[in-house]
Design brief:
- It is a single chain.
- By secondary structure, the chain is of the alpha+beta class.
- It is 21% helix and 45% strand.
- Strand 5 and strand 6 form a beta hairpin.
- 14% of the residues are buried.
Length: 237
Amino acid sequence: MKKFLKWIIIFILIITVLMLSLYIYQKSVYTLDKVSFMLNSAYLPENVYIKNYTHTTEFDTYIDIYIKNNVQYLYQKTKSNITNIDTYNIDEYLIINENSRNIFISYTDKLILVNNNVENNVSNIPEKNNFFAKVEAHGLHEYLGIYKYCGLENINGKKCIKVSMTDNNENSIDRNYYYIDLETNLILKAESAYGNSTNDLEIVSTDNYEYYFNSVTDDKMPEFNINDYPDFLYSEI
């Protein structure tokens, strides 16, 4: 009887350990479904400043994005990494969404585009559409958008998960890495790698994002008045 009881206790302990291990595994590994849910639950408030820095072998780009209510103002500086000229090209854009109408103003190109049939959502979460485009591609072709959980990383003092999406093309491999903040579910960093095989993959571009909530004041947002742009090309659809 004592021997039988002993085996019962051992069996219960084994089951308990297995269940605990499964629980820890599920908590530590982020599946595609779980990450998709995280990204879909992320949102940007009506007032946010986004700082974006992009680095490639060809150029460096700095973008300040100011969002307040239904208005978005972008100030972009781009510098070539190919030439020795240490100067920046400047681009400025203003996007206004109101009453299902989108007004896009390019100060650089002196252009105003008006779309009268759009959703009132001026802000798109950076890199989110790119990630889900990979998911959709995998649904069509199994060798595209292959998902993998890569572990935990620290980005600017924030705890993130790192995941990858890989395209196994016939003669090359493209891999995108996404670093997702566990607190906000926003993507803080994205990397693109390219190579002929998994052994020679090299990072060819990096995007870094910083988010500052409720920090945009009125003086950061240009006011739009159509009469102030008499020399701009105007187009409406």
